[in-house]
Specification:
The chain is of the alpha/beta class. It folds into two domains: 31-125 and 251-319, Bordetella uptake gene, domain 1 (D-Maltodextrin-Binding Protein, domain 2); 128-225, D-Maltodextrin-Binding Protein, domain 2 (3-Layer(aba) Sandwich), CATH 3.40.190.10. 46% of the residues lie in helices and 18% in strands. It has eleven helices and eleven strands. The protein has helices at 2-29, 46-62, 77-85, 98-105, 141-150, 165-177, 189-197, 208-216, 263-277, 280-288, 299-319, and strands spanning 35-39, 66-70, 92-97, 116-126, 128-131, 156-159, 182-185, 203-206, 221-225, 250-258, 297-298. The strands form two sheets. The protein has a six-stranded mixed sheet, sandwiched between helices. Strands 7-6-8-5-9 form a five-stranded mixed sheet, with helices on both faces. The N and C termini lie far apart (57 Å).
Length: 325
């Protein structure tokens, strides 16, 4: 009996040693094959631009294929559900935004906040109402609010999906202004830009990083911005707070992997991304899109930020009626 027990202990110990050695070897060799990186929004939006920029530099650094794919549906629910079905090995990476926390708060996905390990935050992108100077009926926020008061439910505000950060920003502004509007959802910032240019919606809730090309071409401009101070890129656009509306909202974007990914692999990805985001190319991207260097958060700092944001988004979704009290 004693020899049987001893044999079992030895077998378990050898199994643990073998598993640990395999994990260390996998981390040492990482990455040695294609990495698949998923975003929840369509091509051309802020998350797509951010992701492809970092992925391009990571591809050059590591010398392996990194394929960025759009997996739209349910404000990230489809992407997060897919992530949960993949091995926690660092070869599946996801881009995360406020909207994904909202989706998890609504319990529209099998993933929870605890299922994600943060790699880095890369953007803290101001929100704004964008309009087309050539096509839009309303050129100022005062005109838009007046029209919404005169015609409840008729003014159309474009957002990237219902219950997204864009929808929340628009909802908070409408609530502060005491107006009823129609929220029109799109699958990403790229589609929303086209809708604003075509006067399909009166304004779109967008970030500077999604529209600067159109702004420079004088096809789009900011009507109001939801930040503390006016943006250098839009000196004529007032802040909501200037107008007496206590609304402030930014889109944050970052990178995550599935919980259970070996710590050595998490560290390797974190270190590589931190180097990219500290680089001149990435810092130029931030400056050109009205974002500060402090947009970047690395590793544990990013995880702590999401932990702090989580109860806020549960509260917002509850206030909107998407989570039962």
């Amino acid at each position: 009996m004693k020899s049987l027990k001893l044999g079992l202990v030895v077998a378990l110990a050898l199994g643990f040693i073998w598993q640990s050695a395999a994990t260390v070897l996998a981390a040492d060799n990482y990455p040695d094959k294609q990495i698949n990186w998923y975003i929840h929004s369509s091509a051309g939006g802020g998350t797509d631009i951010f992701t492809r920029g970092v992925a391009e530099e990571l591809r050059e650094m590591w010398g392996v294929p990194i394929v960025v794919s759009s997996m739209t549906g349910g404000s990230g629910a489809r992407m997060l559900n897919f992530m949960m079905e993949q091995p926690a090995d660092g070869y599946t990476i996801v881009s995360l935004t406020n909207s994904n926390l909202a989706t998890m708060a609504r319990k529209n996905t099998t993933a929870t906040r605890q299922d994600l390990v943060g790699i880095a935050r890369g953007c803290y992108d101001p929100q704004a109402f964008m309009f087309s100077p050539k096509a839009s009926k309303y050129k100022t926020i005062q005109e838009l609010v007046a029209a919404a008061k005169a015609n409840p439910g008729k003014v159309k505000i474009g957002v990237t999906s219902i219950a997204s950060v864009d929808h929340v920003a628009a909802y908070l502004f409408a609530k502060a202004a005491g107006v009823e509007v129609e929220y029109v959802p799109f699958s990403g910032g790229g589609e929303l830009v086209v809708a604003v240019l075509g006067d399909v919606v009166d304004v779109g809730v967008l970030n500077p990083s999604e529209v600067m090309g159109q702004v420079e071409a004088k096809n789009l401009d900011a009507m109001v911005v939801f930040v503390q101070e006016r943006l250098k890129a839009f000196p004529d656009a007032p802040t909501a707070k200037e107008l007496g509306y206590d609304v402030e909202m930014n889109t944050w974007r970052g990178i995550g992997v599935k919980k259970g990914t070996p710590e050595a692999i998490v560290k390797k990805i974190r270190d590589a991304v931190a180097k990219i985001m500290a680089g001149e190319k990435y810092q130029k991207y931030l400056a050109e899109n009205s974002m500060e260097p402090a947009s970047v958060m690395n590793g544990e700092q990013w995880d702590a930020f999401m932990d702090a944001e989580w109860p806020q988004w549960v509260g917002i979704m509850t206030d909107l009626g998407y989570v039962k009290k």
